[in-house]
Every structure is written in C-alpha cells, then in structure tokens.
Amino acid sequence: MDNIIYTLLLILFLSLKASSSVSSRDRQWGGVRRILSSGDNNNNDNNNNGDLVTNLPGQPPVDFQHHAGYVTVNETNGRTLFYWFYEAMTKPEDKPLVLWLNGGPGCSSVGYGATQEIGPFLVDTDGRGLKFNNFSWNKEANMLFLESPVGVGFSYSNTTSEYAQLGDDFTANDAYTFLHNWFLKFPSYRTRTFYIAGESYAGKYVPELAELIHDRNKDPSLHINLKGILLGNPETSDAEDWSGMVDYAWSHAVISDETYKTIKASCDFNSSDPWSNNDCTQGVDETLKQYNEIDIYSLYTSVCFASTARSNDQSMQMVMSRSSKMMPRIMGGYDPCLDDYAKTFYNRPDVQKALHVSDGYNLKNWSICNENIFKGWAQSKPSVIPIYKKLISAGLRIWVYSGDTDGRVPVLSTRYSLSILGLPITKRWRPWYHEKEVSGWYQEYEGLTFATFRGAGHAVPCFKRSNSLAFFSSFLLGKSPPSTK
Ligand SMILES: *[C@@H]1O[C@H](CO)[C@@H](O)[C@H](O)[C@H]1NC(C)=O
Ligand SMILES: *[C@@H]1O[C@H](CO)[C@@H](O)[C@H](O)[C@H]1NC(C)=O
Ligand SMILES: *[C@@H]1O[C@H](CO)[C@@H](O)[C@H](O)[C@H]1NC(C)=O
Ligand SMILES: *[C@@H]1O[C@H](CO)[C@@H](O)[C@H](O)[C@H]1NC(C)=O
Ligand SMILES: *[C@@H]1O[C@H](CO)[C@@H](O)[C@H](O)[C@H]1NC(C)=O
C-alpha cells in the first residue's frame, strides 16, 4: 500500500464541484507584448503594454490605474500566469511594490486576496458587480496579485501533463520567472522596494519565493529589491501545524478530552507517516468531523447556509489525498458565500474581456480553487523554518500574523512553529491597538515580529478590514504596531 494514495475525509465548506479551472488550449491568449523600456520615468510605461483595464463591468470609479493580463513564464511548454495589478491610490511612484499570494494549493489570489480580502474592488454580494473597499491595501502600496501556479484561476499551461508535476519548487520557479517578465512590462518597478505577502498555504510559497530571489540576487543583473515578507495564518511546519491544530481544537472545546488524549498518545506528527497509526487516524478524523459541523476557518461565525455551496451536506466534505511522503493537506480558502459570486463574476464574458483573459467569446473556465491541483500536489516542503533562518540572517523583515479564531492554521500552530526558531525576544508580549481597542497582541524577536488579530478567522482582512490595513501600514514602515490607545 506504500505508494497508493488513499483518502481521508476533511472539512471543507467550499463547493468545489468537479469544475477545473484549466482552460482549453485553443483559447485566445491575452498575449505578452514585450516593451523595450525607453523612457523609464515614473509609471508612464504602464499604459503601453495593452494590459490597462479600462472598462471592467460594475467597477466603481477610481483615480488609480489597474492592469490585468498574462505573463508567459515558459514559451516552450506554453505556461502563462495571470496577474492583476493595482497601482497605489496616491503617489504610486513613491510606494513599494507588494506581491500577494493565496494558497490552497490551487486557490486563486484574485478570487480571495484581490476580491474578498485586500483589493480595492470586492465582489458584491448581490452578484452584480464590485464594490469599493475603503481599506484596500493599495492605499499603502502598489499591489500585485498573481494566480499561481499554472492551473489556478485564469493561469494555464498548454502542456497539460504539467499539472501533475506541480509542487512548491515548480511554483516558486514560475513565480520567479513571472516577476522578471512582469518587470519587462513595468520597468519602472524593476528596482522598487519589494515585499511578498500571503496567507495559508502561501506560508510555504512566500518564504520559498523569497529564498529563490535572495539566492539569485547574487547575480546583479537579476537583482530584485526584496526587503521583507508578511505572512498570515501561514502553514509553516507540518508537525507543528498539526500539533497546534489538535491542541487548539481541544482548548476551544471542539473535541472531547478522550479524543484529545488518544491523539496525544498515538500521533507522532514528526514521523514521516503519522497516519500509519490507526488510533491517531481515528482521533484526527474525529477532530475533522467535529470541525465539519462548524466553520473551521472562523470558529465563532455562522456557516453560510444561504450559499448553494452548502446546499447539501456532502459538498462540505471533501476527499483529500495523501501519500506516505507528505502530510495530508486541507485546502485553505475563505467564504463559501462569496466564492459563488466570484465564480459568477469571473466567468462573465464581458469581465473576461475587460481583464484581457479572453476575447469575450472563447471563454476561460474560472474557479476559485482547483481541486485537481490540490489533490495532485507533487511536492511540499515539510517545514519552511530553515528558510526563515536564512532570511532572518539575510536581514529581511519578517512579520507573521494570526487571526486567533481560525481552527485551520490556528495561532497555536504558528506559535509552536516560531518557537522552534528560538529567537531572542526584543519586545515582550503586549497588546496592540486600533481605534482605541485591543486589536490583538504582539511580540518582537530579533529578526521577526509576531502579532495576533483578536477575533479574526483564517483570512484576517475579511474580518478586520480597517485593523489589517493599519497593521500592513506598520509593516511597510517597519514600525511596531501601535501599543497605546
Ligand atoms: C467549465 O467547467 C465545467 C465543469 O467541468 C463544465 O461543465 C463547463 O462546460 C465548463 N465551461 C466552459 C466555458 O468551458
Ligand atoms: C520550460 O519548462 C520545461 C518543463 O518544466 C523545462 O524543461 C524547460 O527548461 C523550460 N524552458 C525554459 C526556457 O525555462
Ligand atoms: C496556448 O495555445 C494556444 C493555441 O495554440 C495559443 O493561442 C496560446 O498562445 C498558447 N499559450 C501560450 C502561453 O503559449
Ligand atoms: C474611507 O476611509 C477614509 C480614511 O481612510 C475615511 O475618511 C472615509 O470616511 C472612509 N469612507 C467611507 C465611505 O467609509
Ligand atoms: C518535532 O521535532 C522537533 C525536533 O526534534 C521538536 O522540536 C518538535 O517539538 C517536534 N514537534 C512535534 C509536534 O512533536
């Protein structure tokens, strides 16, 4: 049975009906037109690359420009990644560039990050269009959202056999190539102060991409001005993540003392195959079963009954694949209700045309997460803690935050993971404030800042928009979050 992939139930409220977001090969492609940068002054280069979005249906009027389209990362095999880029609301030329990634693996940064969390246009719940987000992160930075790897959202490969080879390294390499090719379209950002941010499974993607950039930066011609990374409820170290997940479930009264004792006695999350122990498997199954009754991503909010995503009980559960070599994975994403609206919106012909994804006739098939990619994920680093160490010694700014009502990558998982680093404390645990209230707590270490968001679930900005923007602003300034009212 060693090599056989077998399955385990898992909680998931997303309806990921068989739809794969893989686009068919004969579709019109947005096209990369390389522009040779002549005048590299400010951001005027942006108007000429054909990706400026001018007539997005339902878009509220705004004063900033945004661009969307494809950037080819491998011409031989026909791999191309879709991005959506929002210039900062004011003075984009003075503000840093931030790349945002969502996880899954297999989930879309456009569907989650851009249109549910931190972008300027949130998909409206009436399903008609978009509404302006007054707490969009492009108030503080130029925000770049990437659908990564190929097979996610609008991104695709013409060599479909590659979908079975996707994994962490594949993803990092293509994202790296993407950046360099994107800079060809947007030369004024080539040397801009740069940060990478993301949540959930991007807890792996972000440090992995940062490491690649750091390594390649030894060649001056490839230098990217990476200054730091920002991670939200990030998957970090599989053993610690699992351990924190069951401790959190027990300490938040989701599972019984008996189940907890069974797990503690039988699960060795550090082993290469904790699931070879039946007691452990049963204990974890019981935990997932209880979580299946509520929203694991946000323990104290109600599940979305209105959504068709929840129209039958089966759709909440998903079959998850695992092999003996890898920890089982649970797909990360948030808000089943909004997921449906996003799907409706991004499959509209006029929307696809406006975003330079299709000609408006030969449509791409967009879905928020690609279940096949999630299930077929071929390579995952068990821990990115060694990468943290490397990035810390390289002097990068590393901030990690955690919504403390998330059961999926709970605050305990993050604390266990970070404690392995054994970093000296430079500023002790204390509250941070927003609008005269305790927004969470934080502690600073030599080389890393850790903060919580009180009462926020997995996708923190969905729950705490104003607080998140304030926190993001502190991160960019490299200044502690406000510790007085
Ligand atoms: C999108 O995928 C679904 C499910 O696989 C399929 O039923 C539908 O026809 C596809 N739509 C397009 C436009 O290809
Ligand atoms: C394109 O991708 C294939 C498969 O991953 C790889 O073998 C090849 O080297 C890539 N080509 C370039 C130019 O990177
Ligand atoms: C994929 O194939 C289609 C059809 O041949 C082509 O139009 C498109 O440009 C290809 N995409 C890439 C990224 O090469
Ligand atoms: C948007 O935010 C600004 C502060 O950043 C505030 O002054 C304004 O009232 C807000 N607008 C709305 C509609 O909430
Ligand atoms: C996994 O092993 C490391 C190194 O021995 C240890 O520090 C950590 O506590 C272990 N984690 C779990 C969840 O057992």
From TrEMBL:
Region (Disordered): 36-58
Family matches, as Pfam families: Peptidase_S10
EC number: 3.4.16.-
Biased composition annotated in UniProt, kind: Low complexity: 39-51
Keyword field: Carboxypeptidase, Disulfide bond, Glycoprotein, Hydrolase, Protease, Secreted, Signal
Protein origin, superkingdom: Eukaryota
GO cellular component terms attached to this protein's record: extracellular region; vacuole
Signal sequence range: 1-20
The keyword Lipid biosynthesis belongs to this UniProt entry's keyword annotation: no
Main location class: secreted
Protein name from the UniProt record: Carboxypeptidase
Species the sequence originates in: Glycine soja
